[in-house]
Amino acid sequence: MPEADLRARLVKVGVDLLTRDGPQALSLREIARSAGVSHGAPRRYFPTHQALLAAIAREGYHQLGQQITDAVRDESEPARSRVLQLGRVYLDFARGNRGMFELMFRHDLLQGNQIGLREVSRQLFAVLVDLVGKARPGVSATVVAGAIWANLHGVALLRQWGSLEIAMQTTEIDPLLHASIDAYLG
Amino acid sequence: MPEADLRARLVKVGVDLLTRDGPQALSLREIARSAGVSHGAPRRYFPTHQALLAAIAREGYHQLGQQITDAVRDESEPARSRVLQLGRVYLDFARGNRGMFELMFRHDLLQGNQIGLREVSRQLFAVLVDLVGKARPGVSATVVAGAIWANLHGVALLRQWGSLEIAMQTTEIDPLLHASIDAYLG
DNA sequence: CACGCGAGTAGACACTGTCTACGCAGGAAG
DNA sequence: CTTCCTGCGTAGACAGTGTCTACTCGCGTG
């Protein structure tokens, strides 16, 4: 009787497939197969393949958000090092969950009214804005936070792309992270 | 008798399709159809679909490289404003050639020994390292250049993703660019 | 008991990328 | 001149995909 809430099970199976076999394993039929249902079953809960993928990506945002709020929870720490922690978590997540990270920022998942993804990322962004505001009061927190986020995101992507290792001859990105924080938070 | 160098024509048709109809129009059969040949013809020149896509992406790198070298050609300008020009070109290219930019950084095009993509991007990176070295002698040019590139790349992606507009309530990214250059080049 | 309806099945359809066998030109060798 | 051979492109098959539609089956309500 493993017929409990197929919708949630499809998402869970999708996450597992994603982490185990990568993004190309996330075909609709493969997910259905792994969940033990026919290929038409998901349609009852997700109108399209993209909708299912978006639900899986949302799960990724949930995990990342959890890890980030955990990392910056300690308010006794100086804001600057909390930003540093946030950055480390972001980069670790991107490296540790490559497939998920790639899925989370796929362009085509935003087209079809898949609202919610941008919403969730906006939440994460708000945390960063708050920290920046505390670390450097006076400056435009949103601009600096946007710049830092872009920096983190770019580092994460270029590293996965392999460019940084080749260009900078090292796999160590902590100096990059420090350079970024130093540059923006003095 | 439009049978001149099918290989080059396939790439050209691919670029056209990419700019006109977006990345999802780049199926092997669609490219072959648009080129007026059968779906098996490309196989003579590209062992796999990914190889053809990689060739198209390489064309994009060529264009971007051209625009960048044009933008920083004037050596009488101060290095700092040349970096600014480079950044503008990078961001404009990403916005003006969305499909191409997305294709250029697709993860799966690097797997199958599609060497050359990383090589080309390394060239672009070298230009940036050179400029940074002139703008701020003394510091580690590769680290700063890597940070700037990551920053540019992140801004380009997050903007196309729509996050920046929502988070920062503006489509204007020039302040972000200036903030980045200011932060890293003092 | 009959009915309806929600949930999942099964098959069709058009499409994709890859593989293989085939045709067909044009030039080289005899 | 005829006979190969080889490069280039065609055409069909195959497994796999996402979407759509018709169907079945079980369960609760009337």
TrEMBL record, chains A, B:
Top-rank taxon, per record? Bacteria
Give yes or no: UniProt keyword Transcription regulation.
yes
Keywords for this entry? DNA-binding, Transcription, Transcription regulation
Q: Which GO terms describe its molecular function?
A: DNA-binding transcription factor activity; transcription cis-regulatory region binding
HTH tetR-type domain location: 4-64
Q: Which Pfam families match?
A: TetR_C_33, TetR_N
Q: Which residues bind DNA?
A: 27-46
Identification of the protein by name = TetR family transcriptional regulator
Lineage of the source organism? Bacteria, Bacillati, Actinomycetota, Actinomycetes, Micromonosporales
